[in-house]
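so my prof wants the structure for this chain in the tokens format not the other one, which i didnt know existed until like an hour ago. anyway here's the sequence
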Amino acid sequence: MSPGTYTVKRRLTDRLRVGEVRVVEGQLSTLDEAQLKNAKFSDDPVKGTGLTTVYSRHWSISATGQYQAIFDAPTTSGGLFPSAPLVGGEATVHNFFGRGFAWSFDGQYGWSTGVVASARLGTPASYRYSLINVGTSILYEWNQDANWVPFLGARLGLNLMNRQFDDPIFPQQGFTTMTPGVVGGLKYRIGRSFGVVARGRVHYL
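here's what i got, hopefully its the right format
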């Protein structure tokens, strides 16, 4: 048998027992019955449905909510960018480059308010801050057919930031920058078509 990962199926009277075994050249491979998972007959991998859908190329769409924290001094102490909450969405094509590799596209909108020290006025100047963030990520997902699916990858983002002061004496300010970073997280499958994802991103701004 050639080296690789194989899907193993055991048919019982009322269900299937399905799992995977990895064959490595020169080594003895053992299949542990306890590692097999129960599946319906309609999920028979031979028929190309059920578990095999997880490993085929497919799309997922999600709504996102997150908080962008800036590891810098606050704007009241000379920092340039405020932290802000963001809402948005993400679309991911799974197994795009091969099993486990995903390519995702995301976009978010964020907002905040704050104050900066103003030597001209002698008092802090208040402002409204907005942020549009778009990006793309290349990810690798482990244990795709499990309930808990960890993933890790790289992301390239584009930030479009705007700051509008309440006092018209100050001009509107804008800043645009590319931000490379890394992303990692964990997905929990609620069902075949739904899940919840927790993730963290670290970017260089």
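also thought this was worth mentioning. The chain has a mean pLDDT of 86.
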